[in-house]
Specification:
By secondary structure, the protein is mostly helical. The chain contains seven helices and no strands. The model has no long low-confidence stretch (mean pLDDT 88).
Length: 166
C-alpha cells in the first residue's frame, strides 16, 4: 500500500511541474512567474515539502532549457520547502502562504544573487537586489494558490485528495 501512495505522489508531482511549466510559458508577465508560486502552494499542501521541491525543480529546469536564466530554479525551490514544512506542522494555509513568500521572496532572491553573478557576470551591487522582483510574484501567485486550496477545502475535495495520497 505504501508503494502505491508514493507512486501517486510522484505522478501528482510530475503533473504539478508540468502545470507550472505550461502556465508560466503561455501566461507570461515581464520579470514575474506567479504561476510557479501558485503551484508551489498547491504542492506544499498536497504532496508536502520534498515533493513540492521536486516539482519546482523540474519546472525550473524545464524553464531553463527553454531559455530562462538560473533564476527559474532558485526563485522556485525554497518556497515549497518552507511552505510545505509550515503546512505539515500547522495545517494552516495562510501560514503556508507566508512560507512561500518568505521562501521565494527572500531566500530565493538571496540565493539568486551569487549565482547570477557567477554564471552570468551580472553585478547587481547588492544581495538584496532581487527581492523587489521575487516578492510580488510570490504574493500574487501564492494568493491564487491559497484561493484554490480554500475552494477545494470548502468543497471537501482537499480532504479527499490528501487522504488518497497518504
Amino acid at each position: 500500500m505504501k508503494t502505491n501512495n508514493v507512486t501517486k505522489k510522484m505522478v501528482l508531482t510530475a503533473m504539478l511541474a508540468c502545470l507550472s511549466f505550461v502556465l508560466n510559458t503561455f501566461v507570461y508577465f515581464p520579470a514575474m512567474a506567479p504561476f510557479q508560486h501558485f503551484v508551489d502552494v498547491l504542492a506544499a499542501v498536497l504532496v508536502g515539502p520534498w515533493y513540492g521541491f521536486a516539482a519546482a525543480l523540474i519546472c525550473g529546469i524545464l524553464r531553463m532549457l527553454s531559455g530562462r536564466t538560473i533564476q527559474a530554479v532558485t526563485g522556485a525551490v525554497f518556497g515549497p520547502i518552507l511552505g510545505g514544512l509550515i503546512y505539515r506542522r500547522t495545517q494552516n494555509i495562510y501560514l503556508t502562504f507566508i512560507g512561500e513568500v518568505i521562501g521565494t521572496g527572500f531566500l530565493g532572491a538571496m540565493a539568486s544573487y551569487p549565482l547570477m553573478k557567477w554564471f552570468y557576470g551580472l553585478d547587481a551591487q547588492s544581495p538584496f537586489y532581487y527581492i523587489p522582483f521575487y516578492t510580488p510574484a510570490a504574493i500574487v501567485g501564492g494568493a491564487m494558490g491559497v484561493a484554490v486550496v480554500l475552494i477545494l477545502k470548502r468543497s471537501g475535495t482537499l480532504r479527499r485528495m490528501i487522504s488518497e495520497l497518504n
